[in-house]
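Predicting holo structure, cobalt (II) ion bound.
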Amino acid sequence: MVKITETILRDAHQSLIATRMTTEQMLPIVEKLDNVGYNALEAWGGATFDASLRFLNEDPWERLRKIKDKAKKTPLQMLLRGQNILGYKHYADDVVDYFIQKAIANGMDIIRIFDALNDPRNIERAMKACLKEGGHAQGCICYTTSPYHSLEIFVRDAKRLEEMGANSICIKDMAGLLIPYEAYNLVKALKESVSVPIELHTHYTSGCGSMTYLKAIEAGVDIIDCAISPLALGTSQPATEPIVATLQGTEYDTGLDLKLLSEIADYFRPLREEYLKEGKLDPKMLGVDINALIYQVPGGMLSNLVSQLKQANAMDKYEEVLKEVPRVRADMGYPPLVTPSSQIVGSQAVLNVLSGERYKMVTKETKGIVKGEYGTTPAPITDEIKQKILGNDEPITCRPADLIEPELDKLRSAIAEYVEKDEDVLSYALFPQQAIDFFKKRQASKYRLDSSLADFDNNIHPV
Ligand code: CO
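Done. Tokens:
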């Protein structure tokens, strides 16, 4: 039997409509989702936290509690960037611990933890905290291809995560690079080497997703990530319903009720229409983008490159930049291309081409990755590149977060005037500006509510 994790409340809308689904749009369907019998509902983390504060004027913690309130049977799952939590830099251990404590206290069950460089030292603290709080800790291998990456490397990484205490392992194919027969071999190798369940997460970007799942299922994968059809395919996950139908009556039968799934799809279909009409859903996101497989470059990264080149009035250099990307990636030790490494490699490739000389100009982030500020790169960086980019600056070899002092107390005193609940300090730690803006609006709307209630009171008392 294969289990399905439903991504409609997190990755599906993150991938298709820039994470703009509101809590209000989610809540009416959560009970029905809870009745399906999914392995988990991925409902939080990733970019949802940032987007709630920044674009939706919502408290992400409240969303979590409201969803939990209606999903009492199905475990809730979130995506966490290891020592980056849900932000874009490394945080001190005390912030990581406290965030995970609060996430679990507010209803989170499964925490999927990854690191862009697959450096286990960036995952370890979060995993320990999750296990300590009684959560299910899922360790991730970010899937990528390079002359350095092989089945042996991925098996080594998975074993390391299992030894660290991971309750399950996720193959995280964020760019849709995992093709069906490779998936078969990878899952087979992992099933032979680790004993915890294996989950596969892919995106439909290159059009292979469903085939990849089918081969992974034949190789013994335990769980796959799917999205209900109205927000599936394209840059999102393979659709839930056809997978369920495909497996019906086989040894892999998911046991999920297609009729119930189609009722859930009925709920989301008008929302999809609304997103299309509002321009939040770009039909371009729904097509097949084979460039990911040809250039080994994630779709989102290609569109970033195009916009950088357009800004510089240098679209004629596009082919040259595309060729430079894999060279820069090799120089940087073959990081998987995912946030933030994809942006770092992409921007540096653009600089290398536009300045007419490789590494004549270097971004702060390129320097950071070569210096070891993001952790250890999969393959070693050559001395020649180190010399060229760092000069006499010494590289870091320790775990990057070891260099960060505890931060919580300072953060608490910085926002004392706005705090209404414990979790506020965490929102501020991750997204200071967005959190402050949100806190200010919250205070203002509360005042309005108080005074309108007072008006109401005044009006009825005399009667
Ligand atoms: Co994803």
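The chain has three domains: 3-284, 295-397, 408-447.
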